[in-house]
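Postdoc handover notes: sequence design on the structure in folder B. Input tokens:
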């Protein structure tokens, strides 16, 4: 991709210093170890800056090509893979997913508490592929606190790094739904199910499909389900709160350092700013990049429109405030801004976005032909980084 100066694409270099100041403030204030920020307009990158370090112990500086755990920023890539197969005519959005994954048929739904314990009823409608893409399938992820079903989804064996997607859906068969399909928005393991759907439809492993159909063709050379040994010095460490901030050392954090058999479509990829910028630019271009066609233009348009009925909005991610989604809907893998005034942050209606559990996020603004990426590694998300980055970016736009 091309690079240019801010002025050539309608931004002020002077006002853009506020983006650098924002990142530096988080690092100097001891709230983050380091960041990578990227901005592109009209297909040209005009800001790409690394701040701080990728690891306090080594002191290695953050680099423009530092590798990050992208967690849920994997979901848009999985959704693109699914819609590539949709374009081949292999399924319809509103057909039951059980035609292709029988384990997801005839589900039980928690209805309440009876005299002898939880009560369950049969599903009123089958889970559709659209339900999975929009997080309205009635599945959950164990991160909410409003239902006893959540504890069942917290079983570490459900998505063990040593498992696989076929085993995952078999285990999922034994768990009830938290709500009737299509009646509520709930962040969930649905995108992991979609990874299995890709395997079933393509007769390839999920990682092979992504590499051959998406990552390879787009030139995303550092995007994968783990970091090979020769690249480990580029992998940023993950930090969390504790006497300032402290490095996190747990099974999930460390699982990205070695190959694993559970290929999570919901959160398994590592990537870099430049790689993800290529993915975003493909979407902004209507499904094409550098002569490589990934999706058709009308497919991208469908994915980035709101698919939620009014009664399903605003929605809460993992029990967070629904205020975060005011003025927004949800498409096939993305949050979509529908009403800018209700959203309450500088930007544009029609922008679509998502983020990851370690405080990474991106947005694509078709109206302004703009892509923005913020990368760091801090869990859980506890800073207003996104809002501040949005404001700092848009206030620098002068044309």
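Designed sequence:
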């Amino acid at each position: 991709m091309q690079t240019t100066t801010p002025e050539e694409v309608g931004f002020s270099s002077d006002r853009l210093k506020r983006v650098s100041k924002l990142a530096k403030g988080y690092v100097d204030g001891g709230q983050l170890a380091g960041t990578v920020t990227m901005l592109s307009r009209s297909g040209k990158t005009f800001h790409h800056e690394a701040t701080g370090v990728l690891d306090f112990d080594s002191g290695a500086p953050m680099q423009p090509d530092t590798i990050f755990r992208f967690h849920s920023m994997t979901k848009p890539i999985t959704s693109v893979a699914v819609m590539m197969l949709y374009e081949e005519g292999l399924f319809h959005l509103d057909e039951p997913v059980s035609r292709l994954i029988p384990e997801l048929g005839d589900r039980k739904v928690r209805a309440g508490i009876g005299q002898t314990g939880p009560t369950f009823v049969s599903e009123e409608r089958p889970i559709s592929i659209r339900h999975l893409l929009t997080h309205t399938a009635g599945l959950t992820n164990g991160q909410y606190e409003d239902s006893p079903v959540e504890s069942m989804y917290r079983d570490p064996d459900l998505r063990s790094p040593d498992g696989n997607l076929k085993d995952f859906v078999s285990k999922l068969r034994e768990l009830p739904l938290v709500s009737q399909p299509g009646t509520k928005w709930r962040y969930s393991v649905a995108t992991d199910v979609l990874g299995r759907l890709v395997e079933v439809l393509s007769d390839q492993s999920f990682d092979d499909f992504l590499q051959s159909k998406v990552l390879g063709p787009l030139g995303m050379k550092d995007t994968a389900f783990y970091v090979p040994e020769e690249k480990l010095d580029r992998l940023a460490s993950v930090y969390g709160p504790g006497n300032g901030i402290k490095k996190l050392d747990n099974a999930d954090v460390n699982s990205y350092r070695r190959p694993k058999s559970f290929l999570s479509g919901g959160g398994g990829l590592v990537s870099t700013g430049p790689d993800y910028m290529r993915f975003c630019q493909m979407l902004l271009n209507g499904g094409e990049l550098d002569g490589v066609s990934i999706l058709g233009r009308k497919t991208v348009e469908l994915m980035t429109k709101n698919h939620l009925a009014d009664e399903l909005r605003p929605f809460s991610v993992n029990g967070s405030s629904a205020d975060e989604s005011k003025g927004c809907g949800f498409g096939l893998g993305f949050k979509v801004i529908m009403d800018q005034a209700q959203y309450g942050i500088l930007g544009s209606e029609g922008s679509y976005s998502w983020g990851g559990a370690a405080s990474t996020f991106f947005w694509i603004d078709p109206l302004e032909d703009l892509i923005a990426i913020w990368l760091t590694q801090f869990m859980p998300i506890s800073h207003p980084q996104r809002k501040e980055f949005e404001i700092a970016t848009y206030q620098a736009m002068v044309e």
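Context for whoever picks this up: The longest strand covers residues 44-52. Don't rerun without checking with the PI first.
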